[in-house]
Structures
1.
Amino acid sequence: MGEMKRTYLAVFEGIPKVKGFFSTKYGACKGSPYYNEAVLEETGLKAMQRIQPQQVHKDKIAVISERGEAPMTLPETDGMITDVPGVLLTTVHADCLPIYLFDPKKLAIGLVHAGWRGTAAGIAPKAVMGMEAAYGSSPSDIQVFIGPGISKCCFETGSEVLEVFSEKWSFAQEFSEKRGEKYYIDLKGINKRQLASLGVNASAITVSSHCTCCEQELFCSYRREGGTYLRMGAGLCLIE
Ligand SMILES: [Zn+2]
């Protein structure tokens, strides 16, 4: 018999009060609203209220303050925070990074979709600031998982992308490498640095080594496939 195809990777595994996942290509979905029911069954999160942002590569963070019944779609949103158990924050991905936030003291979570535009806009630090404002979270208490996504090995860009980063983030050059006329940018590293600059402990930030573009056995990739209808799902939920 062949190896079992894993449909998801667990996030914050073994940590009480929180449950997260990132689906592989075997747990990916096509068609709106891009969500794989099998993954929700397997993770035990199917009964939770699903929050589905319509991601537009910007930096809007929604604050979810109560739990409803039906899935909720949020227009023009790329990040969410909540302190309500049973609310399942979700995002969908085909190379862009999922960034998971958990404050074990205030029992609050956040999830953001960060491609290069969202990273340049600082969506991850904006979510942490949102948790400070809404829940009194201290950045030094927040645990972070920067999930699978396109990594420096594959994120080739022209100089114009690096210029966008350099205008806003003084350290951007440290996370890029020039090869010929092209630049290779480490989006995971930039997100980690942004969060550390805000007071998140570097030791509390775990960075996935998975590259969605290189690892075709496990992930689908917009860049590698020249576009794809498949989306891998990220989810994060407080559980009672
Ligand atoms: Zn790669």
2.
Amino acid sequence: MTQRTILITGASGEIGHGLISRLSGTPGVRLIAMDLRDVPESIQGKVESAHQGDICDRAFVEHVMSLHRVNEVMHLAALLSTSAERAPEQAHEVNVQGTFNLMRTAAEQAQAYGDPIRFVFPSTIAIYGVEPREKDTIPPVREFQALRPITMYGANKLYCEALGRYYGRYYRSLTRGDRRPPLDFRCLRLPGIISAETVPVGGTSDYVPEMIHAAARGEPCTCFVRAETSLPWMMMPECVDAILQLAEAPVLSRCVYNVASFSATAGTFADAVRRHFPGAEIRFEPNEGRQSLVDTWPADVDCVRAREDWGFTTRWTLDEAMTEYIVPAVRARYGSTTPPEGAAS
Ligand SMILES: NC(=O)c1ccc[n+]([C@@H]2O[C@H](COP(=O)([O-])OP(=O)(O)OC[C@H]3O[C@@H](n4cnc5c(N)ncnc54)[C@H](O)[C@@H]3O)[C@@H](O)[C@H]2O)c1
């Protein structure tokens, strides 16, 4: 069996938790975790080695990668959209320079070992910039359309997609001869992700997970966008499925793919949450700044390429996700006493 030694950056974050929990114990897989924050004990127990440090520190990145002879990178570490908009210069350092450090180090090691390193990169719907007045009427956006991000985060991610394509396809094209490019770069443009296990911080799609977790804790929630605001979504288990499906797919003809499960408005989610948690207090108080960012993100994305090229599939509609994933998991987490939908009948 081929040994996979996977470096997961941003391991202490939301997707890091989901990914490591799923991959841990897989035969032939060694997991190496990296994060600026302390890697929690629950995660440390699931990985071979955990390293606390900054991806902007190139010496640190080189040290960790060479120590473990990594042959796959899942690069999750980033400053998310709202955090990035509050500290754009720092976001550029982390999201661009940090990503460059990882790609460059991976490329050098791939050349030294004579084998390309697979590099999986979660990008985002924030790389799109649709006209707000057309957002709800245009067809689901395809990968090559509306590439006009208005945020530092979106600009950073779009550039890093291009950097990954360069290392994966065109690296040193004038002098490389017939040697393969050093990275096998694969990228998913993720929609808003909803996890029942973790609460997000610093994203601009956090309003849906915030209303779910608040309702399960019996706390009121203020939604920072208008009720009619629509975005594409995906549940955390589906996000982990998609990352792994893409990482494990055979040779691909493209490197960037949209993925999403369904599109829904904030109001639709609020109604679904109220059905399952009848006492839920959800108020809509749009924050103009955050609203203006979401207004440029597409209401829906076209995932045909991902379905055709590597068999991307999803598990749930919104209602199924509430019933089969979110509600049981948040009740288990918070021990909510609110009766489930239809429990009285
Ligand atoms: N969660 C979503 O809805 C969503 C949507 C689209 C794309 N993404 C992308 O998926 C990836 C993971 O997202 P997430 O939701 O797990 O984010 P998160 O904020 O929960 O986790 C990010 C992790 O990166 C770490 N980090 C930040 N700066 C670092 C640095 N300089 N060095 C090392 N580690 C650093 C943080 O400590 C954090 O643990 C990100 O690249 C994000 O852009 C997420």
3.
Amino acid sequence: MSEPHVRLVNITKRFGNTVAVDNVTLDVARGSFTTLLGPSGCGKTTTLRMIAGFHDPDAGDIFIGERRVNEVPSHRRNTAMVFQEYALFPHMSVFENVAYGLTIRGLPKPQVAQKVRATLKFLALEGLDDRSPHQLSGGQQQRVALARALVMEPEVLLLDEPLSNLDAKLRVSVRTEMTQIQRSLKLTTIYVTHDQEEALAMSDAIAVMHQGRVVRFGTPWEVYYRPRDRFVADFVGLVNFVEGRLVEVSPQVLVADVAGRSLRFAPEGLALRPGDGVLLSIRPECIGISLAAPTGAANVLHGQVAVSQFLGRLVRYWVAVDASTWVVDEPDPSTYSLLSGEVYLTIEPGKVHVIAAENKDKDEGGR
Ligand SMILES: Nc1ncnc2c1ncn2[C@@H]1O[C@H](COP(=O)(O)OP(=O)(O)OP(=O)(O)O)[C@@H](O)[C@H]1O
Ligand SMILES: [Mg+2]
């Protein structure tokens, strides 16, 4: 990854007895789209506000580039923040809203006009200059809020759940637009959301937060397919958790006993020994499902369809195998009729991930 642009070093913020942000350390790469993802109340907004200079940390350091900014006031940090509720001035036109920050900065009128027009054009808001915010759609209001931030030519763009007021379809189109804008400007962006799909779709890197801490930091792929604890695995998508005990360990293959069945999977570099307990995660889309018994597959489970749901782009099955239930997603259901009754599940060894291991003679997990 490239050089860090924004660095948080052991940042803590308390409100009375609440520890909103608990010893967070995070490097945001220059030019990256980095997302803080986590459930309500986990400290995302508080972290963003500390970077913007709206809250002072109780402990720790914040750097933007080489500069430690803890004592630098908000308006001197060269950051711009877009708030969840847009906070557009209702009595001002689109043009005036976007011009506002530059005008108070004291920029001459002709220059303000030129920069505002260029930004409105860039965000496809031309022709809407004279409208007031209530004459705009949600998506347009959102773009005006973004224009207001971008026109300031910030070094770092901070976005707090900017899409949450939009309907589901608009969210998807605006998020694609936003990603394109960010990529074309190569503008270091820190984005806050509790929506895991949004985070996976938009980000170069995701910091998953839980109870004030960053519990996982990585690419979307790493966060989704290589979670390191139950919370992250569960929060970023649907998952099958499987507990087992290792019966075979070799450089090529691991074999776990899972409720009397053998499950084979690929080693991922963890130091493991026979007898260790393992917690495994397998995503629903990583499991094959068929009526006929597959031949030559490493892991085959035989079960009964308990529930099936047609979700448009996929069919989701809940399959009972002995005492456990597996969630399986079958993509592209247009070519199938829904399966029912007895089925076979196939799991490729490379799609099984060890979340945590419990060593025989150690109590702690294998992180
Ligand atoms: N000004 C404040 N005074 C007191 N407590 C606060 C204040 N701001 C935030 N908190 C508390 O700090 C914790 C973290 O809040 P924060 O707003 O950072 O969460 P969040 O992750 O942004 O959540 P959401 O997804 O709901 O916006 C919460 O327990 C919240 O109640
Ligand atoms: Mg928030």
